[in-house]
Amino acid sequence: MASWSPCSTRSISPCGTPLQLKGSWASDIVYLPHSLERTIKIAKGPLSLGLVLDADADKGINGCKVKNICNKKAVGRDGRVQVGDYIVKINAESLRNVTNSQARAILKRTNLIGTNCNIVYITSTDAKIWRERYHQDSEMQMPVINRLSPKIFPKYYRSPFVARREHSSVEHTESFDSDIVSSDAMDSRNEVPQPIFQVRPQLRHAGSIVDGSEIEKFSYDIVLVSLFLIFLHFFFL
User: Fold this and answer.
1) Where on the tree of life does the source sit, at the highest rank (predicted)?
2) 18-140: what CATH class?
């Protein structure tokens, strides 16, 4: 009996749609849910089931697909299971996510044990209807693709730092222009003639510092230092 385990390469947790399997190895397979399963009981007697199964169909997630049925055996005489149906369980042994050798071993045990057989299967008609319904639902749920032209680089992908610098420079220029306009307006209202040449405040301040008294004091200090040096020279000689 095949059991699910996280380390199994072929086993996956059951889900309703392949969208839940996105990124897995079986994401392109439509999962057939348990609601589609049918259970029958076959009185096989000493006969074998007479089934040939394909465990690789739909990558094994929907059970084993019936490839051939022997008309003289138990399933062929019963007539309810047809070629193309999916066998999900035989006597409580799951046929989902099993290999071909495991499926053959399950059939062999069933043929050897007991005279009755319980089979859980999904008809090919139900599987087809379910797949069509799934494709219709997926087409309705497809996201709308934005087909607008790509954004132009200089306009939409400019650095915000550059934008802030340009904004600050524009504000500074506007404030400077407004100051000039306001000063011109005040001058026009006062109508006081201004001199052509104006002395800068810094130069006025420098001229007031360097006057005659400061020069005389500086000269007197130089003379005192010179006399002191001459005195030291003669004293040490």
Assistant:
1) Eukaryota
2) mainly beta
Given the structure tokens 């399963």, which residue do they identify? 37
Gyration radius (Cα) of the chain, Å: 50
178: its two tokens:
């407004």
- Report the distance separating Cα 207 and Cα 140, nearest Å: 89
Structure token digits, residue 21: 């399997």
| Tens-digit pLDDT string for the chain (237 aa) | 444 443 333 433 344 444 444 556 667 788 999 999 999 999 999 999 999 999 999 889 999 999 999 999 999 999 999 999 999 999 989 999 999 999 999 999 999 988 999 999 999 999 999 999 887 766 555 554 444 455 444 555 555 555 555 555 555 555 545 555 455 555 555 554 554 445 445 544 444 555 567 777 777 888 888 888 887 777 776
134: CB partners within 8 A, 6+ apart:
17, 30
- Residue ranges covered by each domain of the chain: 18-140
Q: For residues 98 and 85, give the distance between their C-alpha atoms in angstroms, rounded to a whole number.
A: 16
Backbone angles phi and psi of 5, in degrees to 5:
-145, 150
Buried (b) or exposed (e) across 128-161, using 16+ Cβ within 10 A?
eebeeebeeeeeeeeeeeeeeeeeeeeeeeeeee
Instruction: For 73-94, give one letter per residue: b (16+ CB within 10 A) or e.
Output: bbbbbbeebeeebbbbbbeebb
> Of 131, 107, 91, which Cα lies nearest the Cα of 50?
107
Q: How far apart are CA 191 and CA 196, in angstroms?
A: 15
